[in-house]
Structure formats: structure tokens, C-alpha cells
Write a structure and sequence with these properties.
heterodimer, A: 422 residues, alpha/beta, Rossmann fold, CBS-domain, 6-stranded mixed β-sheet, 16 strands, B: 284 residues, MetI-like fold, 12 helices, flat
């Protein structure tokens, strides 16, 4: 069902936007108009519809007009011409008081810079929209508490924004948006200011919230990974134009023009795929301080399986080191029967975190003979990344193989949520 | 050829004529303007002089203790007792009443004007040269017209003080409003705030520390006008200074000056601590 329809929306910034509109009708380009008149064309001829309950991502590089576009939906920026229909009503024809009512009841917004009120605590911030609407304190605080609970900020009501980390501040921003229970949530680069780990976490949080309570979400982003990860449909903007609208699959398989194609090519796969996405638990492991974990038993096991390296874990599967057939033999020769497994540890066998990108782990993979062990944040062994695996992943990513198909081979890896590359 | 040997524009004559015309025809208007100031001033003055000095000192000590601590409270008590012992208690109370009245009127006029200037670029542009003139015109220039329109005395002194002390409050209020991050205003609008709600719930609370700094400046400037106001017959601590100046009584002038400085330090520290406390509360 159609929730929002945008028809032929234009925004020209400057003192005489009508002049700019005229030049646009004459077919002049954005740059020509700027050179001639000093007017900036923010958005030109944007048209699309957003369905009820979907996450609609508007993606583009900075300066593509996506932030202007989202602000025209609730008229924080007044469009120069066009139509914005929400549930069939034209937002641009609303009077001042109708607009205030519309903003209070239908939409709410989450900002890149969080935009929390520094003089109010978390609870007051979350209740901000309800306070503006004149709701009594006990009612609005109950609603705000509920919203804070939804985003996992219970117990932080009395803290002030500057006491919170960026991720937590944006949770407050999200709670403020949810507390008014809007039909439409506008998110302007909401997670762009957060570091990558927190960003992924917030994306998951948003998807979880969307599972429970379907809202129509317009999500502005410059991040392809993010768009592919959370978007039901994506609109791609360039120079104020909407160049393509479609599901992630449609856009990936059928880029509308070179701009869209370039957008995807511009993504460095090594920066997006993480070690955890391609990790495989294929190598032999030994548990330290057990009978089977002695140097001789380990050597025997490696010989039997015709393997070169073994990965030493403790009883809780935490990674401790790597031993090789050669290092085990050396240790046994030198130790005169009293050698221990740790004497055979390869000295520069370092583990990498599963969250590290391929770019980050490349030096490790390239400079060592053994597959590089991958651990999670608690140092628990997750598997290895071999040279072969690393190169094959790169090859497939760059030649358009479906990255998701590989993911199925390793169902516990989080790459199921990762983007597909063509 | 321009020789500049003769005066071509007799602006001085025009101004004299204009003031005369004002005094002749509209003195009633200015007398009416004077009324609220006179009423406030005499009320505060009589109140301060009527209560026993010990009560005034205690109030100051309590206030200083609340906003700052024992150190400032101790200093306030010491200074006020010293002023009393120097024989300037009534003069100090008159000065205090004058400063208080001028600051009250400055706040009543200045804060709204400052808010308006903070929200409207056009009004800000219009107001700026007026504020420049108010701050830089030597007080002696407007003392005479003020006397002609309002006659001499404490009220005229307060009015002259208002002219001089108003600009920093307007400027800092405007600055405070402008310093509020535009994204916060945008966020408030996005959640359906009306213009008034943006002002009352976002702009004023966030500008408050800066507005308090403006109030502090206004108090200091009002105190610095005490001596000049005494030239047009205002009483208070300025009077002994002017008298000492006229009779070359160095001792009298110095002691009067000392009392002004002590009073200034007390008022400055108390109002500054108020501003700082508020900032802390906001940014905690």
C-alpha cells in the first residue's frame, strides 16, 4: 500500500528560485544554472512512491540532494515545486497549524548529529515530541520510558546526553523518534556518525524494531553496505536527480546507468567483507593441557591427517597459539622427552578479530605460511582464513559472484546479513 | 574648492533646536516615561535604607554562600562591614538601589530586544549601529539632554545608566540565541514545535548562560556609571567622589572609590557564580 508519493519535486536554493526553475525547463544543467545565476539546484524532478511498512533507503554521495529531499517531506525545507502526498494529503498545501499537527502526529526524525537537547536528561529528551504536543508529564514520561526500553536504554533515564557514547546518544535520538509513535520515521544519515561496529549494531536494532512494529522508514545514507543491508527498496540520487529506484537485487543486477554502476564498483570489497564473513573451521585444533594436547600426540595427529599446522585452544576454545609439524619436531628433539606444547608455538602466529576487514588482515594473510586464526571479541577461536580462501573471495567479489552463496557454506557466520556483490 | 574654513552644516544648531522643541512640547511624555523608574527606584531605595544593615549584610552573605561558598560569603561580609565603618552605608544602599533599578529595566527592555535580534537578521542589522552609538557616545554628551528632559536627580542618573549599560545585555542575549546549534532548532521543528516552543524550550534555556553573562556585564557597567551619574545630581557613592574631586579632597574621593570597587567585586562574583552554576546544571 502506498504511504508516501513524491511527484516531480524540485528545490532551487537562492533568492530567485523561479528563475532557476525556468532555466531547468529550458534544459539547462545544474552546473550551468549555478554559473549563470548563482542558484543552487538541490533536487530536480524527484518522483517515487514509498510503500507502507517498508524501509526505503535514499542513497547518494554528499551533495546529491538526499538530505534536502528528506527535509522536504516534512517541509523543514520548503520545496520550490512539486507534490508530497502522505496518505493522499498534500503536505505542501498544509497551513502552518496543519503542518505542526502533521509533524507531531505523522512523522518523526532522527538526525546524523543526534541533535539531543543538552539541557535535558535522557528521559526528557525521549519525551520531547510528546511534550511539544502538550501531553501531561506522567503520561509522556511513561511513553518515553517505553521507547527507551525498546532501544535498550533502561536505567539511563537520568543521565545527560554528554555522558553517553555516540551509539547510546543515537539510541536516545531513536527513542525520541519512537516515543511519538509515528507512521513515518525519517532518518537522516542516522548511523553515519557512529563507528562501524556500533553502526552495524544499530542497523540490527532498527531491523529488530521493524520486525515488532512496522513503520514506514525513509533512511538517508551514503553507505552502500548500509543501504543493501537494511533497505527494502533503494533510491539512488545523483546531482539532485533520482536515477534509479528498486529493490537491492534489481539495482545490483540491473544498474540504470553508469553512475549507479560506478557506485557499486567504487566499493572496495576488501573494506566491506570482514574476516568473520569468510572464516572456516577447517583446520585441526588441539586442546592444551590435555593428554591429546601433548607435543607427541599432536605431531602424530598431524601426520595421520596429513596436515601441516594445528591450532592450540584452551578448554573454553580460546585461542593460544599455532604449532607446525616442524616446530613440534624441533621441540621434541630439544626437550629430551620433557618438552611441552608451548615450546613448539610459532612465535609470530597472531590471531585477527572476526570484525576486522579483509583490508586489515591482508598483511597477516600475505606474510605467513599458515592460515590466519580468527577469534571473536572474547578471543574464542572461530576458524581460519587461508591465502586460497582470501584470494577466492576477492576474485568472486570483483567478478560479480554472489557472495551470499558462499555464506551458506558456513551458516553460523554473520555474512548472511552481509550485502550481495555483483 | 573645499577649504573647510567655514561651517557649512549647522548640525549643532539643529540639534539644540530639536531638543528645545522636545522639551517645550513633549516634556509630559518624558515625565511619564520617568514615572515607573522613579517608582521602582524610590521603593528599592527606601526599602534598603529602612531595614537594619545587619539584615542586608546577612542577605548578601546567604546569597554568596548559596551561589559560591563560604569564601565569597566571608568576603562579602568583610567588605560590607568595612564600607559601613568607613561611613558610607547610606550612600552604598542608594547606589545599590540605582544599580538594581537600572539592571531591572535593562533586563525588561534588553532581553526581549536581544531575543528579537538573535532571531531576525534584519532587526539585528538595524539595531547594531544604535548599540554602537549607545556604547561609544561619551556619557557627557547625553547628560545635558537627559537633565533637560528628566531634570536632575537619582532618576535621571538611572536613565543615563540604562543608556550606557543596556547594549552588552542585548548583544550577549542575541549572541546566546544565535549560538544555539541550528540542528537543535531543526530537531524541535521536526517534532512539531511552534515558533514560541522553539524559543521557550530550546533557544532561551540554551542561551541562558550567555544571557547571564550579559546581565553581569550590565551590572558592572551600571556601577561604572555611578560617578558620572553623580554629576547630574544623583546621590550614592558617586557623590563623595565628585565632591572630593571638586574640593581636592583626595581622601574622600579615594574612600568613595574604594567603596565602589568593593561593591563591584561582590556583585560581580555573585552574578558570575550564578551564571556558572547554571552552565554546570545544563551541561552536567
Amino acid at each position: 500500500m502506498e504511504k508516501i508519493a513524491i511527484k516531480n519535486l524540485f528545490k532551487v536554493f537562492g533568492s530567485n528560485p523561479e528563475k532557476g526553475m525556468e532555466l531547468l525547463r529550458e534544459g539547462k544543467s545544474k552546473n550551468e544554472i549555478y554559473e549563470q545565476t548563482g542558484l543552487t539546484v538541490g533536487v530536480q524532478g524527484a518522483s517515487f512512491t514509498v510503500n507502507k511498512g517498508e524501509i526505503f533507503v535514499v542513497m547518494g554521495l554528499s551533495g546529491s540532494g538526499k538530505s534536502t529531499l528528506v527535509r522536504m517531506l516534512n517541509r523543514l525545507i520548503e520545496p520550490t515545486s512539486g507534490e508530497v502526498l502522505v496518505d493522499g494529503a498534500d503536505v505542501l498545501k498544509m497551513s502552518k497549524s496543519e503542518l505542526v499537527k502533521f509533524r507531531r502526529s505523522k512523522t518523526s526524525m532522527v538526525f546524523q548529529s543526534f541533535a539531543l537537547m543538552p539541557h535535558q536528561n535522557v528521559l526528557e529528551n525521549a519525551a520531547f515530541g510528546l511534550e511539544l504536543d502538550g501531553m501531561e508529564r506522567p503520561d509522556r514520561e511513561a511513553r518515553a520510558m517505553d521507547a527507551l526500553k525498546q532501544v535498550g536504554l533502561e536505567g539511563w533515564e537520568n543521565a545527560y546526553p554528554d555522558e553517553l557514547s555516540g551509539g547510546m546518544q543515537q539510541r536516545v535520538g531513536l527513542a525520541r523518534g519512537l516515543a511519538v509513535d509515528p507512521d513515518i520515521l525519517l532518518m537522516d544519515e542516522a548511523f553515519s556518525a557512529l563507528d562501524p561496529l556500533i553502526r552495524t549494531e544499530m542497523q540490527d536494532e532498527l531491523l529488530k524494531l521493524q520486525d515488532r512494529h512496522e513503520r514506514t522508514i525513509i533512511f538517508i545514507s551514503h553507505d552502500l553496505d548500509e543501504a543493501l543491508r537494511i533497505g527494502d527498496r533503494i533510491a539512488i540520487m545523483e546531482g539532485g536527480r533520482v536515477v534509479q529506484v528498486g529493490s537491492p537485487e534489481e539495482i545490483l543486477q540491473n544498474p540504470a546507468d553508469d553512475y549507479v554502476r560506478a557506485f557499486f564498483r567504487g566499493v572496495d570489497p576488501t573494506g566491506v567483507i570482514s574476516a568473520g564473513d569468510i572464516v572456516r573451521d577447517t583446520q585441526p585444533t588441539v586442546i592444551w593441557h590435555t593428554k591429546q594436547g601433548g607435543p607427541r600426540a599432536t605431531l602424530e595427529m598431524l601426520n595421520n591427517r596429513d596436515r601441516e599446522f594445528a591450532y592450540v585452544l584452551d578448554s573454553e576454545r580460546r585461542f593460544n597459539g599455532v604449532v607446525s609439524v616442524d616446530s613440534l619436531r624441533d621441540a621434541i628433539d630439544k626437550g629430551n622427552g620433557k618438552s611441552k606444547l608451548e615450546h613448539a608455538f610459532l612465535s609470530d602466529a597472531i590471531s585477527v578479530l572476526e570484525s576486522e576487514s579483509l583490508q586489515d588482515i591482508l598483511p597477516q594473510v600475505a606474510s605467513h605460511a599458515w592460515p590466519i586464526p580468527v577469534v571473536d571479541a572474547q578471543n574464542v577461536y572461530r576458524g581460519v582464513v587461508s591465502k586460497n580462501r582470501f584470494l577466492r573471495t576477492l576474485y568472486r567479489a570483483e567478478n560479480g559472484a554472489h557472495f551470499e552463496q558462499q555464506a551458506v557454506e558456513h551458516p553460523t557466520s554473520k555474512c548472511l546479513k552481509s550485502p550481495a556483490f555483483h | 574648492m573645499l577649504s573647510f574654513e567655514e561651517k557649512v552644516i549647522p548640525l549643532d544648531t539643529w540639534i539644540t533646536g530639536f531638543i528645545d522643541w522636545l522639551v517645550e512640547g513633549y516634556r509630559w511624555f518624558f515625565q511619564a516615561l520617568k514615572w515607573p523608574v522613579e517608582y521602582t527606584l524610590s521603593g528599592v531605595e527606601q526599602g534598603l535604607l529602612a531595614v537594619p544593615p545587619l539584615l542586608v549584610i546577612s542577605i548578601f552573605a546567604f546569597l554568596a554562600w548559596r551561589v559560591s561558598g563560604f569564601k565569597l560569603a566571608g568576603f562579602s561580609v568583610f567588605s560590607l562591614v568595612l564600607i559601613g565603618l568607613l561611613g558610607f552605608w547610606p550612600e552604598t544602599m542608594i547606589t545599590l538601589a540605582m544599580v538594581f533599578s537600572s539592571v531591572v529595566f535593562c533586563a525588561v527592555v534588553g532581553v526581549p530586544l536581544g531575543i528579537w535580534a538573535g532571531r531576525s537578521d534584519r532587526f539585528d542589522k538595524l539595531l547594531r549601529p544604535v548599540l554602537d552609538a549607545m556604547q561609544t557616545t561619551p556619557a557627557f554628551v547625553y547628560l545635558v539632554p537627559i537633565v533637560m528632559l528628566f531634570s536632575i536627580g537619582n532618576v535621571a542618573g538611572v536613565l543615563a545608566t540604562i543608556v550606557f549599560a543596556l547594549p552588552p545585555l542585548i548583544r550577549l542575549t542575541s549572541l546566546g540565541i544565535r549560538q544555539v546549534h541550528p540542528e537543535l532548532v531543526e530537531a524541535a521543528l521536526a517534532f512539531g514545535a511552534t515558533g514560541w516552543q522553539v524559543l521557550l524550550k530550546v533557544q532561551i534555556p540554551l542561551a541562558l548562560p550567555t544571557i547571564m553573562a550579559g546581565l553581569n556585564q550590565t551590572i558592572m557597567m551600571a556601577l561604572s556609571m555611578v560617578v558620572i551619574a553623580a554629576l547630574i545630581g544623583a546621590g550614592g557613592l558617586g557623590a563623595p567622589v565628585v565632591l572630593g574631586l571638586n574640593t581636592l579632597d583626595i581622601g574622600l574621593a579615594t574612600v568613595g572609590g574604594l567603596a565602589i570597587v568593593l561593591l563591584a567585586i561582590i556583585l560581580d562574583r555573585i552574578t558570575q557564580s550564578m551564571g556558572i552554576n547554571r552552565t554546570k546544571e545544563n551541561n552536567r
